[in-house]
Amino acid sequence: MQLVPVICVDGPSGAGKGSLARRLADRLGFHLLDSGALYRVVGHVASERGVAWDDELGLEAIAASLDVTFEPIDDGVGVFHEGTDVSIPIRSVRGGEGASAVAVFPKVRQALLARQRELAVAPGLIADGRDMGSVVFPEADLKLFLEASAQARALRRQLQLQAQGDSVSLPRLLEAIEARDAKDRARSASPLRPAEDAVVIDSTELSASQVFDRAMALITSRGIV
Ligand code: C5P
To answer: Which of the residue ranges 64-78, 85-99, 158-172 has the most confident prediction, judged by mean pLDDT?
Structure first.
């Protein structure tokens, strides 16, 4: 049973979920769950410890005892594993590949489930991911599913990576994004797809502010806050 308001922001990578989720959390004063970061850290720790990305039991052990914290840093929120800032490696292209590789395993997903649900505490939660509305918070008050063309998403991702001093060519990013999407949509455990009661927003032609305004209008009209 979910006792506090939960708003889910799901969709493929680069559709603008992260920035929308952050803005909503700031505006409403809610907690923020960046579920992708959990999968990214599992993939990263596996690499560090020599656990293969297809070793389901080894990955499950990592996920079950994951010591991750999210802490404010200069320009946003840093992701720390056992006290070490892993924000940069987990956000790299390889970090995304690792996340999507480990995320196919039901045991890994199950090991992260309770940890995600624990974050639904007062005054409320904005949950950013792929299966927030379909699996993790089926009773959420609002389920948003952001879409955007692969080209638009690759371009946004390139700008994000450039901002952190990483230059990756657009064709390579497009290829990585399409490969990751295909994997996320095709997997049998919690595939990427909108929950039946999700509101789908195509952000290809919309600015971040326009998407935010639409989300706030839905939140207000549903009386969530
Ligand atoms: O959202 P982000 O790009 O950080 O997610 C990285 C990868 O983690 C996704 O491509 C997906 O494979 C996986 N993921 C997932 N379920 C979530 C969040 C992320 O499977 N709720």
So the answer is: 85-99
For the segment 32-55, what is each residue's pLDDT rounded down to a tens digit? 999 999 999 999 999 999 999 999
Q: Measured in angstroms, how far is the CA atom of residue 157 from the centroid of ligand 1?
A: 14
CB of 131 shorter than 6 A to ligand 1: yes
| 160 pLDDT higher than 90 | no
Distance separating alpha carbons of residues 205 and 179, to the nearest angstrom: 23
Q: What is the DSSP code string of 30-58?
A: -EEEEHHHHHHHHHHHHHHHT--TT-HHH
Please work out whether the CB of residue 32 comes within 6 Å of at least one atom of ligand 1: no
Residue with tokens 């987990």, as numbered in its chain: 90
Please, what are the domains in the chain? 6-220 (3.40.50.300)
